Amino acid sequence: MTTLADPVPGGRPGDVERAGALSGELAGRDVHGIVLAYVDTAGIGRVKTVPTAKLPAAAAWGVGMSPVFDTFLANDSIVTTDVLGSPDGDLRLYPDLDQLVELSGQPGWAWAPVDRITQEGERHPACSRTFLRRTVREAAERHGLTFRASIEIEWALGRPPGPDGVFVPAVTGPAYGATRQVEASDCAADLLAALARQGVEVDQFHPEYAAGQFELSVGALDPVGAADRSVLVRQTVRAVAQRHSLAVSFAPAVIGQGVGNGGHVHLSAWRDGVNLHAGGDRRHGMRPQAESFTAGVLAHLRALTAVTAPSPASYLRLKPSQWAGVFTAWGRETREAGLRVVTGTTGHRDQAANLEIKPVDLAANPYLALGCVIAAGLDGLTSGAGLPEEITGDPAQLGAEEAAARGVRRLPVSLGEAVEEFRADETLRAALGPVLADAVIAVRRGELAAVAGLDDERVAAAYRWTY
After folding, report:
1. If phi over 0 gives left and psi between -120 and 50 gives alpha, with beta otherwise, what is residue 197?
2. What residues have CB less than 8 Å from 357, skipping those under 6 apart?
3. Phi-psi region of 61 (alpha: psi -120 to 50; beta: other; left: phi over 0)
4. Cα separation, 384 vs 289, whole angstroms
5. Which of 8, 24, 252, 373 has a CA-to-CA distance to 260 between 20 and 30 Å?
6. Burial of 345 (0-12, 13-18, 19+ CB in 10 A)
């Protein structure tokens, strides 16, 4: 289980002693350094590292890092809000020892996600991991709910880019083709072995639709653990590929046209050990709470895209009839709707049933994405919201009148439109708090300014090797 207690100066109870023991064990296995990882508002993984012997000090007093990274853009430019973006100040990064893992794909290193607090020991209001942990805790306290979540990982496997940065697929063959699996066999086997040694449960791994594209699905955890796992899996995919002289892009759009990389979120709500998405008398076995939770996510879906699809490149991927889920619609196993109700197979539904949120990609900060999706669902649960009629087939084929009558709307077609939807959504902004909500808006606007005037191919190129 993920640590749910906030860090404190001097360390959480027992952490310093535990870190000392872990440090000795890791050093005995020739682990020389610890990667301390978090994800910024732009969705970029940032790190500091410490020698293994310094893990107890990090557990006690944290490791310093500037708060300015909360308003960094993907290209490392800096924007500001009324609180963030200054060169002043310092934060402390505290590793979550429950999630510390030796990196099989990077011999000599271990990895741990961090929470960030101020030097005075207060929560940092822009720490996305703290935001998600707080959201999960409040759902348990106010509604008696827990959650299980997982994030799909899609990437394009390519040859190392030259000076022009062009993407050249490392494998050939058709979508889901056996030839791709054969050509990537050695790298893929090493990846599965590395993930197994790191304790990551892999459900599926296969070639995907786009050129050089693969997808990996992992087992569900609590939401904070699921977000941590998403970051760890990407670190491992990249490291293993590099050892095979290959390059990886998790960008939403690797090229200007065609199918991009998604990061679909799977989420289920539970109460007293019972999956609320199965065994009920509502549509497709949902219980009333699950139906209202789903309705809440649907109601906020347009605003959510500013968090779940946060890059200008995200909107090169969010196109109709490409299984990206670009409509405010839901249905059972409907891969063109924004929300896909997954029931699972008869006999396994009490464990497998869940809600898939499709307009999500891996430019998203997974802690922000999961926290905001849960906040939207809880809003529906609180109000007892009902779901509209479900859809089947492709919503793009509906006439304008029928779509309007059924409440089916296109999701934002640009990041600018998504930001305006987010600005108007009081529920999501209140969940994030003013400091983090303002950072989301400022960073998204900064990304728009950074690519102003670029055509689709140059927008894709700007982010191709960033994520």
Report:
1. alpha
2. 264, 265, 266, 267, 297, 304, 308, 325, 338, 339, 373
3. alpha
4. 8
5. 373
6. exposed
Ranges of residues in the chain with a pLDDT under 70 are 1
| CA separation, residue 148 to residues 70, 222, 223, 351 (Å) | 27, 5, 6, 10
pLDDT at 2: 72
Q: pLDDT at position 397, please?
A: 86
What values do phi and psi take at 441, rounded to 5? -65, -45
Please, are residues 198 and 102 in contact by the beta-carbon 8 Å criterion? yes
Q: What angle do CA 384, 385, 390 make, to 5 degrees?
A: 140
* Structure confidence at residue 30 (pLDDT): 97
Is 249:464 a contact under the CB 8 Å cutoff? yes
Which of these, 93, 126, 127, lies nearest to 112 by C-alpha position?
A: 93
Residue 396, pLDDT score: 83
How far is Cα 416 from Cα 310, in angstroms, rounded to an integer?
10
Q: pLDDT digits over 334-357, tens only?
A: 989 999 999 989 988 889 999 999
Query: How far is residue 296's CA from residue 284's CA, in Å, rounded to a whole number?
Result: 17
